[in-house]
Amino acid sequence: MKLSVRGQNFRLQSDTEEFATRKLEGLKKYLPNIREIRLELTRQENKRGEDEVIAQVTLTHERGAILRTEERARGFNHDGIEASITEALDKMYTRIARFKGKREAMRTRSERFSMTLAELETAETLPAIDEPAAEFEPVEVVKRKQIPVSTMDEHEAIDQMELLGHTFFMYRDVGSGQVNVVYKRRDGAYGVLSPAEG
User: Fold this and answer.
1) Which one of 20, 42, 60, 119 is most buried, counting C-beta atoms within 10 A?
2) Three-class secondary structure assignment of 145-186
3) Is residue 30 predicted with pLDDT exceeding 50?
4) 1-126: CATH homologous superfamily?
């Protein structure tokens, strides 16, 4: 398993890196066959108050599923950094529980976004988790990014969207070959946007 911890806009202290590495390595007890775990810690300056630290954890499974969480904490100090890491990992337990649940519920037709029976047998029980906090939603465009578009059906796209913790996900439909967007509606149901000629 490849593991990386990176700091943006600040120099990462060795004790913080050791704390993060120890916490991240613990994830393999709950989810076998992890290919890579990345933790990105970002210092965000706040002109109106305390600086914040943002911890983003990205986990890639051997079959290609990606699980991602993000958490922020006020106060750019040792306690704030550790709090953001711990809270991001608490959210990751929720994502892993969903990943495990896909196999248990047999809701999906894809092996990629669910654990195999062998993985379920070797994985430890997750620690008790609370409901995840609401995701941070920016009100302006602060980042632009090109993403690879994978071919899958809409059920796989919904699974991947949920594992990433997003409210939408772009994919290439296996049947039509078109780039579609699946999204979560306010009523909890899902919708799919497909391109049409104007």
Assistant:
1) 20
2) CCCCCCEECHHHHHHHHHHHCCCEEEEEECCCCCEEEEEECC
3) yes
4) Ribosome hibernation promotion factor-like (3.30.160.100)
